Amino acid sequence: MAADEKKKELLERLRNAVIQYDEDAAKEASQEVLDVGMNANDAIFNGLVSGMEEVGRLFEAQEYFVPELLMCADALYAGLDILKPHVEQLDLGVKGSVVIGTVEGDVHDIGKNIVKMMFDVAGFNVYDLGRDVPLDKFVEEQVRTDSDLVCLSAMMTTTMTGMKKVIDNLRTKNPNVKIMIGGAPVSADIAEKWGADGYAKDANNALKDAINMISSLKKLKEEAEAKKRG
Amino acid sequence: MNGTLREELLRSGASVVGVACLKDVLHQDIAHLEKAVSIGVDRNLNEDTVSLLLGLQKRTAGILRKAGYRYLCIPPDSDRIRNTFVSKLYPLFTHKMAATSAGLGWIGKNGLLINPGFGPRLSLATILTDAPLQAGTPIEHSLCGDCGMCMEFCPSDAITGEEWSRNEPFPELINPDRCASHKKKIKALRGKPNCGLCIAICPYGRKTCKDSPTASFVEA
Predict the structure, then answer these.
(1) Domain ranges of chain A
(2) C-alpha angle with apex B70: B66 to B71, nearest 5 degrees?
């Protein structure tokens, strides 16, 4: 049972390293995970990501602010860089590719980067367009990469209207693509009104929703193919 | 906690240590970390200076973390190009502002932090924190006085001779184009853009520089 205890201890250390934004501790614990032959996937999700979930809660409760949030994300990546090469298979049931960016006129990309991180963690192919992205670029990139999902972020009421345009254009080119929007001025109501498939309140919800969306999309594709063959 | 932190840092190689209270002057994203621990290291212009500063910063972070406080390390300017999330916040902050607020010195005619003991020969790093540290007395005006050696010796005539004062708009101390074009010339000649005459010539700390860590506090 010593192995179980060691595992528990390491998960706790990974989690705390993220919460306490201690990059060195995250690296150390991650290396130990590999040394004792523990499952890297387990360490990422039940250690690092579990810590980030708590950080999200602290941020929402206004106990943590932007600097802490960013340092926690850095600590998570420090661990992830060590663990990721050893992840054999992510048992999320689904993988996908995603185009992500902050819309034209908007230079706020902290939220976008956190969401991007969650996709990275989950093993998605992420095409990050960065910030202040021209509206047409989202459509071009989706077509070029044949991505399952497009994530749009805006932090200002003045720039969020650009998201509606992108959604309309994407729908014209590819009715099946899933679209998710997020950012401070966005709400579930707006997402529905503009025809987005999902609205992300925070990074964690974004990932969960994205996985659901992609699996439903994959299912649709499979059904269509089965029909063709049948 | 002030005393132990300062002693620990001085023992570990810091040349000067000060604390500033930056209430109401910080960007809103970092405003909750209103105390700044300013660390200066006698600069020998080599890589050891930067790694020593980073090490001191880590030590400070460890002490603060252990005591249950928040902190944000702002690395030395020469080590800012890092691809991390938190590096986005570095431009919100200047080391010199923290150092003058902590009473470690003033902004000289050469645009650099001048410490009475070490002159402009310090490399700086800062740790912002919410720990209730006792802040030093800020220095409000330049103490360069009539001295204008940096101005006279500047090979590119880039130093204007203006004087810094905290409550006045930041004056144009240096003509950046002139300074840069001179460094470019030097680079073409010697492969490295180092000039540094305005550092070498400053009479403040020219003798004491290498030996006395007790020269760290402002007597003026």
Answers:
(1) 2-86, 97-229
(2) 100
Q: Would you place residue B215 in the very low, low, confident or very high pLDDT band (cuts 50, 70, 90)?
A: very low
CATH superfamily of this structure's domain A2-86: Methionine synthase domain (1.10.1240.10)
Task: Residue window 105-134, chain B: list those with CB within 8 Å of chain A.
Answer: 128
Compute φ and ψ for A109, nearest 5 degrees.
Answer: -130, 15
**Quick one: which H or E segment has residue A199?**
strand A198-200
| Kind of pairing between the strands at A198-200 and A178-182 | parallel
Are the beta carbons of A67 and B84 separated by less than 8 Å? no
Tens digits of residue pLDDT in B11-27: 999 999 999 999 988 98
pTM over 0.80: no
Q: For A105-125, write each residue's pLDDT tens digit.
A: 888 777 788 788 778 877 788
Residues from chain A that touch B72, judged by Cβ atoms under 8 A, are 67, 71
Task: Quote the tokens at residue B43.
Answer: 């600069």
- Establish whether this prediction's ipTM goes over 0.90: no
What is the CATH architecture assignment of A97-229?
3-Layer(aba) Sandwich (3.40)
Q: Say which of B29, B58, B86 has its CB closest to residue A65.
A: B29
- So where are chain B's domains? 2-141+201-215
Give B-chain residues touching A24 at CB under 8 angstroms: 58
